[in-house]
Amino acid sequence: MDAACVNSFFYFHAMTASPEIKITKAVRSRLAETDFNNLQFGTIFSDHMFMVDYADGEWKDLQIVPYGDITLSPACTTLHYGQAFFEGLKAYKHADGSVSIFRMNKNAERFNHSADRLCMPQLPEELFMKSIAALVDVDRDWVPAKANHSLYIRPFMFATEAYLGVTPSKTYKYMVLTCPVGPYFSKPLRVKIETNYTRAAEGGYGYAKAAGNYGGAMLPARKAVEEGFDQLIWTDAKEHKYIEEMGAANAMFVMDGKLVTPSIDKNTILKGVTRDTILTLARDMGYEVEERPIAITELVEGTKNGKLTDAFGAGTAFTIAPIASFSYNGEEYFLKDPAAREFSARALKALNDIRYGVVPDKHGWNYMV
Ligand code: PLP
Ligand code: COI
Predict the structure, then answer these.
(1) Is the pLDDT of residue 1 over 60?
(2) Which residue's alpha carbon is at the smallest distance from atom 1 of ligand 1?
(3) pLDDT for residue 185 is more than 60
(4) pTM of the model
(5) Is the C-beta atom of 315 inside 6 A of ligand 2?
(6) Taking the CA of residue 119 as centre, how many other CA atoms within 13 Å lie in the half-sphere pointing to its CB?
(7) Atom 12 (ligand 1): residue with closest C-alpha?
């Protein structure tokens, strides 16, 4: 590993032994030279990262080390056959300086569903949580103390065996990186409803946070951007008539006063943690919620008759990203002014109040670091 952040002249290993995680601290932090007023998503990494290797049925050598490059065999299964997946979650700074991680147990659970689907080893949930809590603790000064800012946490696992046969790797690495981030989008989204390309089909692995799902989405997403859109909404693989999800968020709508979102029972879309959170908060607020197939024609109709009063992407990175308009079959439909939408404003406030510790955490969603 190349500890690029450490000035080699001043370099020394400050080893702190915890029973299981060996911590090697970067001597010189990059914190002071980081511009927290200009955080482009996923470009600035905190001082440290977590890593552990899997071999012979065991996770061995838990380490927190200075953030830097790693070496890999060019023959490893990740590079050729895509045995790789990730998670995304966030840590928040409260007004009293304490730091919490939001619904980490849900990501731990989903991490293992992805591992299972890709024939990769399970990671004990306590190891997932411990690795993240320890890393956030070491880099707690990197959690921004600003409204709508947080520390984005990126756990991921990939195959490391050098073998070109098409079989699951025998060895893996699990790592965690963190990045201070602000809002993902600066404005409401113009989205294109995609009716040509497919993200995932029944029996596929759309529900897994597999690297391959994102690689395969890049061409359609780039085409949409070239056409002037900010994001895609995927539709079902069979008929392209029903809404699935967005590129990196679940799609949610308020129609006829009810919160409506596509159901997850066909395993084609990600079981979003934010989706689940918003459904719960909506029920708390007294809204009726429906998880069911949503026909594109319903959205078109709802725009015309005024019954579609809110539409947004819900995700960890996106938070609640308002949809300003959607395009379907070459026609663009404009929705109610995002600034005047009642549900998403209330849901965002309720969500932020919990994540930033403004109100009691009655659902037990905050893991205090
Ligand atoms: N759908 C996709 C394809 C995503 O990449 C994400 C982001 O993680 C989501 C949905 C939302 O999931 P979550 O709320 O757990 O971040
Ligand atoms: C997340 O919200 O964690 C995501 O995975 C989005 C990311 C692909 C940008």
Answers:
(1) no
(2) 249
(3) yes
(4) 0.93
(5) yes
(6) 11
(7) 272
